[in-house]
Amino acid sequence: MLVLSEAQTVEALAWEPLIDAIGDLFAQGCTMPIRHHHEVEVPGERDATLLLMPAWKAGAYIGVKLVSVFPDNHMRGLPAIHGSYLLSSGRTGELLAVIDGGALTARRTAAASALAARYLARPDASEHLVVGTGRLSLNLIEAHAAVRPIRSVKIWGRNAEKAEETAAAARALGYAAEAVRDVEAAAQAADIISCATLSSEPLIKGAWLKPGSHLDLVGAFKKDMRESDDDAVRRASLYVDTYGGAFGEAGDLLQPIDSGVIKKSDIRAELAELVTGQKAGRQSAEEITLFKSVGAALEDLAGAILAYETVTKGLPVSA
């Protein structure tokens, strides 16, 4: 049985192969039951969340991810997300690999956003604003840079010191990155805005979005969470990773649907429809697009298969 550490998982999931693998599996399809979603009490802190996400390709692979989200872990200097992925044979049930769930989750989440950006962001998008300073922030920068000519990166967070640390880490990776204090001004200039927070209140306002911009919302994953306001969803062309996930958990869309700002029918497409060409993405250079993801077990399965086959079948390994 293969056991991949965080570093080994990262090394096995190079961005372009990972983005392609997720796109291919969305096109092919797989069995993806509704994920288990449980609230876990944490005395004296905000509740944690336990997620169990199964998926399988008949006769090939079976996978399940076990993830915990502890939103107050930042007080301990720990990541909010921990987890493991169990990959088994779809023919015999034999356990094939245990893969670091935190690294897999961060990379597949960013890769799914980059996959969406292939269809929704302008081809010349070069200014990237990242809202949030957690593990996802650097992954989102790297993933979008794999599909768009990103030249400038701005990073905003509630904690200015952490924003500076994240910007320094991005510069160490070769990006022209800087921390910003004025999120409104940064959003008004950005071609792509990625939000990766656990916010319950809107952080990005629709009035700030310039024509042609793309808003990528990946952080909020429950009905009472959101990162954008009503004006943002009203102004933008709306896309999601999966209809099931969005209509079940995406507060950024469910709250304005409930208040009558938008309708379910305003969601133009999910990723599977974009990658298969069933529905179109961006229609004009001036259009504002919005992609909302809450995560899909298909994405984890695609990443786990890629990591396993990269390591065991001697495929090139590159971070």
UniProtKB/TrEMBL annotation:
Keywords: NAD
Keyword NAD included in the entry's annotation: yes
Pfam families: OCD_Mu_crystall
Family: Belongs to the ornithine cyclodeaminase/mu-crystallin family.
Protein name (record): Ornithine cyclodeaminase family protein
Source organism (scientific name): Peteryoungia desertarenae
